[in-house]
Amino acid sequence: MSPIPGLAKVGLLGGGVIGGGWAARFLLNGVDVVLFDPDPDAPRKVGEVIDGARRAYAKLTMAPWPTEGTLTFVATPEQAVVGVDFVQESAPERLELKQSILRAASAAADPSVVFGSSTSGLLPTQMQEGMTNPERLVVGHPFNPVYMLPLVEICGGDATSEATKARAAEVYTAIGMRPLVLGKEIDGFVADRLLEAVWREALWMVNDGIATAEQIDDAIRFGAGLRWSFMGTFLVYRIAGGEAGMRHFMAQFGPSLKWPWTKLMDVPELDDVLLEKIVSQSDAQANGVGIRELEAIRDDCLVAVIQGLRSVGYGAGEVLGDFEKALFERAGVPAAATDPTQPLLTHSTRIPSEWVDYNGHTNDSRYAQLSCDAADAFLRLIGMDRAYLEGGHSWFTAESHISYLAQSKAGDAVSVTTQILHHDAKRLHVFNRMFLVADDTLIATGEHMYLHVDTEIGKAVPAPQEMQDRIAAIAAPQASLDIPSQAGRYVGAPRA
Q1: Sequence-ordered list of residues with C-beta below 8 angstroms from that of 108, at least 6 positions apart, any chain
Q2: DSSP alpha helices (H): ranges in 122-190?
Q3: Hey, which of 79, 173, 259, 444 would disulfide with 74, CB 3.0 to 4.6 Å?
Q4: Is residue 325 situated within a structural domain?
Q5: Which domain range does residue 438 map to?
Q6: Measured distance CA(103)–CA(106) in Å, rounded
């Protein structure tokens, strides 16, 4: 069952680079996917994209991802849209082809189902021609890799309803994206028009021998590209204007816009000579690194940038922070214990390959993560949800101890249980045990002391009585349990 209300299943029309990225983003958000693509190799290609997304998501956030949705391939566009809650079209950029697919699919889909198109430049008004219920088509233009980059441009055509735009924005936001709703239909939308300007200049500089492909990429990635990732263009230039801001910047640099620097209104002839120059330079730049390895490098770098931005709550990092809160909420709370006198099962997962160190075993830090993930689940159980955090209260970790007792490796299924050792109005002392599911081997333990804090004043305060009562209701049946031998130990102390 999908963790996102009203979004249990989506239909995808096209499974190329973009369609595969959509499949990964929806599936890893717990949504079932029905996909049409006539390419007989589509299952392999889409599967590789999904594998890459799994790898990236394991590094992106410690928030709990839901159980993956199911992926089904079908033979026709009509089969892909029956019984779904949303449709995303990602066919090749040929207007006649898109129109044909959309006409067939829209005739078979429920009239209330919204269609998003991944087109990077075709006008939605043109694509709506001949559709059944054309008011439910909107452009939802993503960026590659779709499963990592949050931006999606929403652009309606002449027939598109406001309700369609709102529904599309709701769907995209639910899967961790940042919708940019355009007020006017235009070829290429916003982002691609900006990218096209840079691309034209880059082609001219390669054509004229001014710079190589690698030099142009270096000019972006070591310079303006770093600023663009969090401030874009206008804010950067506002800062460049100093205390007087944008007005001063425009007065100083505006006249240079008339200088004959740019060739934006022209494009070099893409003849065999220029094509060979671009291809050979690109091959040299890749230096033999294959496409899947390049994708992995790209994703790792995106993870690093987005996590860095998350630490300051800005740009794509703000989107990730908001999405993490939604993931925690959707994860819900641990199921009721079958035996309340025993430690509560709070977390289950498999060890991903990224957690394994040079010894082939799970890295020490990941046991702390396992224990903290279980603790987060427990805190949700006692009422620490988004509303509670936004109300200015939280539980802060005051002290933690991890004991390493056995080994685990990539692919191992593990579970974590939580026992309350002590609690009062301001403090919560819990003990987590981490087990291999296969044989119940105890691989590690985690002991944590939490303080209930008023985040606005930064001081420990009593938890609300309702929360204290929830803690007490869990702790009372566990009161007869023995204190674990690892609890309260200092490093090197003999066990009792």
Answers
A1: 77, 78, 81, 82
A2: 124-127, 162-174
A3: 79
A4: no
A5: 333-478
A6: 5
